[in-house]
Design brief:
Strand order of the largest sheet: 2-1-3-4-5
Number of strands: 5
Number of domains: 1
Bound molecules: 5-O-phosphono-beta-D-ribofuranose
Radius of gyration: 17 Å
Helix content: 40-55%
CATH class: Alpha Beta
Structural class: alpha/beta
Strand content: 15-25%
Largest sheet: 5 strands, parallel
Distance between the termini: 50 Å
Order of helices and strands: EHEHEHEHEHH
Shape: globular
């Protein structure tokens, strides 16, 4: 059973979204990773949401650029948490996707993360934190990862002080 579904609006988004999948792999979280567009394939997007819900998906992660409506279209179809990754894919540098993803009407939230790879990584961490509410093994893994982040900062500070 996949607990997370990652949808991208286009295969051209893959490079920027791949770090999301990498972190879910690192955490041992099962996920599906596919392409579906809010505009080009609206029926496929709606069908995928239904199928993912039926198979036990608990968190949706949607990445799209330009007039980025994918996360909103998914949020319209589910009450499970939807995280949105705005992708920079136009001359507007991602501001278009950021505003389209974040500005949802009340009652249909999309938890919007940062643009591109940084956002892709945090979408995975956020999805993991949501799943960890009911999964103590995963919660323990996340605490260990936090310790590792902390240790890496302390190590960097020590190394810098030696120069
Ligand atoms: C969006 O339009 C996609 O998410 C992508 O970021 C952007 C451009 O798509 P392509 O024309 O490269 O397929 O829907």
């Amino acid at each position: 059973m996949s607990r997370v579904a990652i949808f991208m609006g286009s295969i051209s988004d893959e490079e920027k979204v791949r770090p999301c999948a990498d972190i879910l792999d690192e955490l041992g979280i099962d996920y599906t990773f596919t392409v579906s567009s809010a505009h080009r394939t609206p029926e496929r997007t709606a069908k995928l949401v239904e199928e993912e819900e039926a198979s036990g998906c608990q968190v949706f992660i949607c990445a799209a650029g330009m007039a980025a409506h994918l996360a909103g279209a998914v949020a319209a179809k589910t009450i499970r948490p939807v995280l949105g990754i705005p992708v920079s894919a136009s001359a507007l540098g991602g501001m278009d996707a950021l505003l389209a993803t974040v500005q949802m009407p009340p009652g249909f939230p999309v938890g919007t993360v940062a643009l591109d790879k940084a956002g892709a990584r945090n979408a995975a961490w956020m999805a993991a934190q949501i799943l960890a509410l009911t999964d103590e093994d995963l919660a323990a893994k996340l605490r260990d990862k936090r310790d590792a982040f902390k240790a890496s900062v302390e190590r960097a500070a020590e190394e810098l002080a030696k120069r």
